[in-house]
Design a protein that fits this description.
Elements lengths: L1 H31 L16 H6 L1 H4 L3 E12 L4 E8 L2 E8 L5 H8 L6 E10 L5 E12 L15 H6 L1 H7 L1 H23 L3 E2 L5 E2 L11 E4 L4 E5 L4 H9 L4 E9 L11 E10 L3 H20 L3 E4 L2 E4 L5 E4 H9 L10 H10 L11 H13 L7 E7 L8 E2 L2 E12 L2 E8 L4 H16 L10 H8 L5 E7 H9 L39 E2 L10 H5 L3 E11 L7 E6 L5 E6 L14 E5 L5 E3 L2 E3 L2 E2 L1 E6 L2 E6 L14
Parallel strand pairs: 3-5, 6-10, 14-15
Antiparallel strand pairs: 1-2, 1-4, 2-3, 4-5, 7-9, 8-9, 10-11, 11-19, 12-13, 15-17, 16-17, 17-18, 18-19, 20-28, 21-22, 21-24, 22-23, 24-27, 25-26, 28-29
Length: about 650
């Protein structure tokens, strides 16, 4: 079977090479005849495919000029049919030798599927009743040197669709539809906010400080200024400076960059809308987000009823609004408000309902938030606003006048996904400075996602910012919902992808690489075990080579990565490992690692982890270092270690 597969692949490669050669020979012949299609600079288009179909009764018998890509060709001898695809859809072209210049017809016969042509002809209906264009002249406008994917299978490889979006858009109408919906959503969003008196602005992408969100930034260098700069992780702090300046209602639809993991809902660069309105609060921001999403669904899709992530969603206005503490109580029975402010009791209550508090500061607010995050968020299927977040997780939100432990903040959820985040904005410069200071201390202690101190923003607040409501939401995730797709890559035209040849080694290095000198002088290792283990006990541990087929962050965990492994049995093995601090998941896919495979399964964050990946751990200048043990890729999956 393997031999047959290899032979088929070789034959396909040979056929492709022949097709590529034939197409280049056709182009060369055209150029030699003085008919180089790449010399043509324009073609006057009067109509499009769908326009002709929609207005057929009016246009029948009328001469039109259309242009597009040949998607199919059929017929022989003196009559040919083809399907031409333009931006609006497809229409049939009918070409007859005795109704055209013979040389033009013969040239058209040599066209390939994928070529781009201009057609002059009359609108008519064939004997079979199909609306068509009877060609009088056909001009080759661009020669396709690459064949389109095979007709019936199309471009179905998801990875290839993302890498070659241009081919995906040619072959898959649903992909094109997704991006049309996305474009319409952004246009609706702008009209909606403009109608409310908001002013669209642009703020810097590069900044000496990365602020406005808890996220790891991309770092670049400004050569002229000779300083490191950060690509923005949010637009918040600049927009609020404009509120201080008196603009009162501002918004920005802009690109955001976060140097974090990738999965079906996260891409390192993505688009958000942030807006700020003076003299309003949390309630005003709820009304705006609900108005945007319900209005967009009705205008673009014609309905409030949609299907997303396997659920039927009702976007009809008047969405549910509930506090975080009440949502937690409704789902888990844990009543955090009964012990408000008591850190020990809060942590104990969270643990009593199965919440993992490892690696989180043991405060009442964190206990409430972690319980919501781990136990409640995934249950929020219908549109729901969760309000009143703890101060600990809301460094830029205003404290509730009624409860100093909570802030006037909401997040809106659909299908367990956060769709928007809004505050009654903090405008007390002294309080803001103290919160920045706390975040800066976290950053100094190794939390590279904590906010940086932004003294200029504090200075802006000292001039006075009016009571303000602020809202931020992801354009990509909203587009996912409206399109009914489960991956952010389906709504980003060119998602971030790992280059295919990243792991390839140069055949002839320019110069021999200098041997790396490794300094082990500051390394500290754990003492060797004093107790011996007998050979029979040791031999019961089953160490195997495993191939990493897939790797992704575990939802709700900053430490855990979920590995899908080939252990040689033919059945995928799932192991969770807390090494996200040291590795991004995409860099591990395809590697060969070592795992113990005969440990009993244990649940971690609700997922069965079946075994343990082996890592090497040491300390260096008081900080733990870890290396996942990766071995020669020539070692097959399932090979046993002795």
């Amino acid at each position: 079977m393997a031999e047959q597969t290899r032979n088929n692949e070789q034959n396909e490669q040979q056929d492709l090479s022949q097709i590529l050669q034939v197409r280049r020979e056709k182009l060369k012949a055209l150029q030699d005849e003085g008919h180089d299609p790449f010399h043509i600079t324009k073609y006057d288009v009067t109509h499009h495919a769908q326009e002709i179909k929609d207005s057929f009764d009016v246009l029948e018998g009328t001469e039109v000029h259309i242009a597009g890509r040949l998607m199919s060709k059929r017929g022989m001898g003196k009559v040919s049919f083809c399907d031409l695809q333009d931006k609006s859809g497809r229409i049939q072209i009918y070409a007859r030798k005795d109704e055209m210049d013979e040389a033009v017809y013969n040239a058209f016969k040599k066209c390939d599927i994928g070529d781009i042509v201009g057609v002059r002809g009359d609108v008519f209906r064939t004997q079979k009743g199909e609306m068509s264009v009877r060609a009088h002249d056909i001009t080759l406008l661009s020669k396709s040197l690459q064949p389109l994917p095979e007709k019936f299978h199309g471009l179905t490889d998801k990875e290839l669709r993302y890498r070659r979006r241009y081919v995906d858009l040619i072959m898959n109408p649903e992909s094109k539809r997704n991006f049309e919906i996305r474009s319409k959503f952004v246009a609706f969003l702008r009209r909606y906010l403009d109608g409310l008196g908001f002013m669209e602005v642009e703020t810097p992408v590069l900044s000496p400080i990365a602020g406005g969100a808890n996220a790891r930034p991309f770092i670049t260098h400004h050569n002229t200024l000779d300083i490191d700069m950060y690509m923005r992780i949010a637009t918040e702090l600049h927009l609020k400076r404009l509120i201080v300046g008196g603009l009162e209602r501002v918004y920005e639809v802009g690109r955001i960059f976060r140097n974090e993991g990738m999965d079906t809902k996260h891409n390192p660069e993505f688009t958000t809308c942030e807006l700020y309105q003076a003299y309003t609060n949390l309630d005003g921001m709820m009304d705006i987000l609900e108005g945007i999403l319900t209005g967009a669904a009705k205008e673009i899709l014609g309905t409030y009823q949609i299907e997303w992530l396997g659920h039927q969603i009702d976007l009809t206005p008047s969405w549910k609004r509930v506090t975080m503490a009440d949502a937690v109580k409704n789902v888990t029975g844990a009543d955090f408000m009964a012990i408000e402010g008591d850190a020990d009791a809060g942590v104990a209550l969270a643990k009593s309902v199965g919440v993992d508090m490892d690696g989180v500061a043991h405060t009442w607010g964190n206990a409430l938030y972690e319980t919501f995050d781990q136990k409640v968020e995934s249950t929020l299927i219908q549109p729901t606003f969760i309000t009143m977040y703890p101060v600990e997780v809301s460094p830029l939100a205003k404290r509730s006048p009624a409860d100093p432990h909570l802030t006037e903040r909401y997040e809106m959820f659909i299908c367990g996904c956060e769709m928007g985040n809004a505050f009654s904005e903090l405008n007390d410069p002294i309080d803001q400075y103290e919160r920045f200071k706390a975040q800066a201390e976290k950053r100094a202690n190794g939390d590279d996602e904590a906010d940086m101190m932004d003294e200029d923003f504090v200075l802006a607040l000292e001039y006075g910012m009016p009571p303000t409501g602020g809202l931020g939401f992801g354009i990509d995730r909203c587009a996912m919902m409206l399109c009914g797709t489960d991956s952010i890559r389906d709504v980003i035209l060119f998602p971030t992808m790992k280059p295919i040849d990243t792991d390839k080694k140069p055949e002839k290095p320019a110069a021999p690489a200098a041997e790396e000198k490794i300094d082990f002088s500051k390394v500290e290792i754990e003492p060797l075990f004093a107790d011996y283990v007998d050979f029979d006990t040791f031999s019961k541990s089953d160490f195997r080579a495993v191939k990493i087929k897939a790797c992704e962050p575990v939802k709700k965990s900053k430490k855990l990565l979920k590995f899908v492994l080939d252990d040689g049995t033919g059945t995928d093995r799932v192991i969770l490992s807390g090494i996200h601090e040291y590795y991004e998941p995409e860099e591990l896919v395809g590697k060969t690692a070592i795992a113990i495979v005969n440990l009993p399964a244990r649940q971690m964050m609700g997922i069965d982890s079946c075994g343990m990946l082996i890592s090497a751990v040491h300390s260096e200048e008081g900080k733990e270092r870890l290396h996942l043990l990766m071995v020669d890729p020539h070692i097959p999956a399932g090979a046993k270690l002795y």
